């Protein structure tokens, strides 16, 4: 009787030890670590055949559970690794690229940026994380956040909910040179990030305009989502992708067609900056482009191209740029 009891107790201990061993191996594999039969056998004080059975049990589980992972033996390195064919997971090089873009955007104050970078880095394979952290450490240290230094996550989320549910919002808004903020009642339709800042795109609640107003989100000092719903005609529905093609430097205004001649070194840069531009003609003087844009923010980009651009139409914009060039010239002549 005692012999049977001792035998049952021993089998239970062995079963528990096997389970703990398999879970330990699988946990390290799932975190990106590589293992060898020899090192695992030494670690758990068992022979390599026992570790081989553990590996087969893990393989069997992965196949039965129909996961996107599989256990692979790397003959060159002589190690076992957990691999995946699931393209939904971020690869190490993708994480590095995203982190680089985040830092260049300067979109968030330093504490928020550091937190985001750390969380993204932790999504990489553990064996690759030190490499990514080493690359980014200097850039994190020298990161300079924007002057407003505001954490915007909460406000961005509240605005996104108001946009999704089409609810009128009351905001208090303070422009850079205003002495105090003022109240606005608006219909939010979109959020766009451009040139370091997040912007809220909204229509006025009490004034009917053919184009939306643009608010810098870090200048919103208070926000209250009302229970009032709003509707926009289908033809006037806001599409962030289309709006982004037609807006420059987030200057709102009426939609206008701009025609200009470009003779710079990179016509491709024109199409990258103005995605809806198209080529009308080309000769020895350059390429004539036409594009639809909101407002006169495009004027800033056209002036930045210097002698590589000549505005042809509309006449009002051509005359406006001539006046700006004249005023610039006068400053240098003085």
UniProtKB/TrEMBL annotation:
Kinase listed as a keyword: no
Residue intervals of the WCX domain: 256-329
InterPro entries: CBASS_pafABC_assoc_protein, WCX_dom, WYL_dom
MF term (GO), any: DNA binding
Keyword list, A-Z: DNA-binding
Stretches assigned to the WYL domain: 157-222
Keyword field contains DNA-binding: yes
PANTHER family xref list: PROTEIN PAFC, PTHR34580
Name assigned to this protein: Predicted DNA-binding transcriptional regulator YafY
Species annotation: Ureibacillus xyleni
Species classification: Bacteria, Bacillati, Bacillota, Bacilli, Bacillales
């Amino acid at each position: 009787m005692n012999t049977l009891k001792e035998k049952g107790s021993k089998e239970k201990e062995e079963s528990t030890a096997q389970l703990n061993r398999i879970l330990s191996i699988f946990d390290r594999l799932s975190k990106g670590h590589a293992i060898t039969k020899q090192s695992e056998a030494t670690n758990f004080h068992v022979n390599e055949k026992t570790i081989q059975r553990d590996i087969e049990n893990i393989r069997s589980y992965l196949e039965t559970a129909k996961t996107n992972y599989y256990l692979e033996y790397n003959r060159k390195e002589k190690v076992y690794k957990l691999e995946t064919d699931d393209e939904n997971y971020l690869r190490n090089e993708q994480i590095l690229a995203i982190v680089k873009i985040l830092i260049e955007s300067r979109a968030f104050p330093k504490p928020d940026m550091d937190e985001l970078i750390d969380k993204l880095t932790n999504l990489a394979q553990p064996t690759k994380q030190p490499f990514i952290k080493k690359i980014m450490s200097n850039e994190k240290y020298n990161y300079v956040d924007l002057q407003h230094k505001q954490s915007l996550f909460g406000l961005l989320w509240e605005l996104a909910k108001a946009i999704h549910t089409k609810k009128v919002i009351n905001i208090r808004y303070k422009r850079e040179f205003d002495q105090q903020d003022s109240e606005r009642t608006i219909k939010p339709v979109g959020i766009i990030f451009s040139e370091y800042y997040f912007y809220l795109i909204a229509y006025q609640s009490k004034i009917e305009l053919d184009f939306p107003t643009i608010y810098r989100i870090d200048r919103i000092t208070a926000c209250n989502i009302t229970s009032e719903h709003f509707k926009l005609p289908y033809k006037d529905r806001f599409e962030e992708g289309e709006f982004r093609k037609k807006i420059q430097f987030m200057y709102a205004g009426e939609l206008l067609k701009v025609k200009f001649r470009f003779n710079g070194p990179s016509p491709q840069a024109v199409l990258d900056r103005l995605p809806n531009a198209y080529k009308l003609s080309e000769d020895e003087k350059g390429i004539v482009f036409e594009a639809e844009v909101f407002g006169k923010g495009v004027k800033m980009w056209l002036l930045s191209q210097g002698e590589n651009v000549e505005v042809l139409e509309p006449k009002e914009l051509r005359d406006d740029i001539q006046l700006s060039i004249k005023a610039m010239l006068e400053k240098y002549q003085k």
